[in-house]
Amino acid sequence: MAKCEICGKGPQFGHSISHSHRVSNRKWSPNLQKVRVRVGNTTKKMIVCTKCLKAGKVVKVG
């Protein structure tokens, strides 16, 4: 399942509501990126959301 490995953010579910108020299911996905991250002295590939990248919770390598 697509989840941020830092904060655990995953897809959100809800309804799409038309002008005539017809309801259908829909899904909002977080903006996840596969990035190389520095963990200690090693680099590791992780799936991280862009909010964690922007907040500086991980150090991007390369």
Describe this structure in words.
By secondary structure, the chain is mostly beta strands. The chain has one domain. It is built from 1 helix and 4 strands. Strands 1-2 form a two-stranded antiparallel ribbon. It has a two-stranded antiparallel ribbon with strand order 3-4. A hairpin with a 5-residue loop joins β1 and β2 (23-28). It is elongated and about 55 Å long. The two termini are 26 Å apart.
Over the alpha carbons, how many angstroms does the gyration radius reach? 16 Å
Q: Domains counted in the coordinates: how many?
A: 1
How much helix, percentage-wise, in residues? under 10%
The number of distinct helices, counting runs of at least 4 residues, comes to 1
**Helical/strand content category:** mainly beta
Number of strands: 4
User: How confident is the prediction overall: mean pLDDT?
Assistant: 95
Report the β-strand fraction as a percent range: over 45%
Main beta-sheet strand count, sense and barrel state = 2 strands, antiparallel
Shape: elongated
End-to-end CA span = 26 Å
Order of helices and strands: EEEEH
The strand line-up of the biggest sheet is: 1-2
List unreliable stretches of 5+ residues. Answer: none
Task: Write a concise keyword list for the protein shown above.
single chain, about 60 residues, mainly beta, two-stranded antiparallel sheet, two-stranded antiparallel ribbon, 1 helix, about 45% strand
